[in-house]
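Budget justification note: compute hours in this period were largely spent on complex prediction jobs such as the one shown. Inputs:
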Amino acid sequence: MSKSKNKLTTCYTSLECNSCKILNKRKFIDGDFVFSSSENCFDCDGKMMITKIFGVTMD
Amino acid sequence: MIDCWDLDFNFNEFLAWVGEDIDTLMMLIWILPVIIFVFYGQRIQLLISSNEIKKDIGKLEEYTISTKKDFLNYVKNNLTSKTDPSKRLDGFFDYFTIMPVDMDPNGIISKINHLVRSREDFIRLQINGMFSDLPSVELSKLQNLLEIVTTLQLFYKHTRHLYLTAKKQKNFPLILPLQMMIPFIMEEAVALKDAMPAIKKGQPIGDSIGPMIVGQMMLDTTKELAAFETVWSKTTFENRDLFLLKAEGPNATVGRPGDGFEKIISNKKPDLVIMIDASLKLEGEDSASIAKGFGAAIGGIGTERFKIEEIATKNQIPILALVVKQSIHEAITLMTQEIADKANTVRDELYDMIRDNTTSGQTILVIGVGNTIGVSQ
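Corresponding output:
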C-alpha cells in the first residue's frame, strides 16, 4: 500500500484458472508478476495464472 | 508618547479642506500606487512569483531527499554487498550526460544512441559489480530507481539555479519561463516520486500496457532473443503470420525494439507493423481511452523511433499505432484498474486492425512498446 496525501492505493492481483477459468482477486504478494502461474485453483486444483496486477485508489 | 492632539490638528478643519478640494486628494491616492508600480512593479511581481516558486523548490528538495533515502534503504534491506554501497551509489546521483554537438545535426542520432547505451552499460556494470548474485530483475529495478533519483535531483538543481540567478540579478523576465514551466516540472516530479513503490515491488505501471497485451499473445509460443533485453516469437491469426516483439519481462526494461525489428526483418519482411503503447492524454481526454493512428508509437529520447522509422521507410512497410491514453502520473506509477481492464478491448481492436489492413497470407509485426516491469510473456 502506498499513501499520497489523503489517497491510499492498494495493489491487487487478479488470477484466472487455466482449466476451469474461474477468476480470483487477492491482495498483491511480493514476487507476483503478470502471466506467472505459481498457485493452484481453489476449485479444480488446476493452475491459476496472474492476468492483471493493478492499484485501486481510495480517498 | 506623543499626543497627536498636541500638534493642534483640527480634524474638522481637515474635513472642510477635503470637502473643498476632494479632487486633489483623490489624485494623490491614485498617483501613489501608479508611482510605486512604475518603479517597483517588477520587484513586486518577482516577490510574488518567487514565493510560489520557492515553495515548489522546497517540495522538489524534499522529494529528492526522500527518494534518495528510500533507494538507499531498499538497497541495504534487500541486497547483499561486500562493502557499504551507499557511498558509491551516492556518487551516481550526480552523474551527468553531455549531449553531442548539434551544430551539424547530420549523424547525431547514432551519437546519441552510442552515448545513452554507453551510460546504461556503465551503470549496469557498476551496479552488478557492487552486489553479489544480483538477479537481472533486481538489476533492472535498481537502474530504474537510480534514474528516478537522478532525474529528481536534476529537476531540483536546475530549478533552484534559475530561481537563484533571477533573484540574485533581480531579473524578473528570467523567472517568467520558470514560472511557466514549474507546474509541468512538479507534475512530473510528483509522478516520479510516486513511481518508487511500484518499481521497488516490481509491479506493472501504466506504461506496461503495451507489453502486457503482446505478452499475453506470446504465451505458449517459443520465445527467442531479438536484441538486448528484447524477445520475439511467432504465432498465427486467421491465416496470417504474426511476429510478436516486446521487452523481456518481468524486468524493469523497455528493451531495444529498434534492434529487434532489424533482426526480424533480416528473417522475413513483414507487410505491416502495428505498435501498441501508452500515450500521454491531452487535457480533457479520458484516461484509458483507446486511440488509433499512423506512425511509430514509441517515446523515449527518439533513437529507437528513428531506427524503426528508418527500417520501415527503407522497406516500404506501413506503421500503424494503437495507444492507450493516460496521464504522466498514471504512465509511471502502479497500473490503474481502468487501464488494466482495457487490455482485452485493445487486443480486440488490434485484431480488427489486422483484419482491416491485411489479407490472408500476409505477415504482421506487433510491437508491445513500454516498460515491461511486472509483466512476463
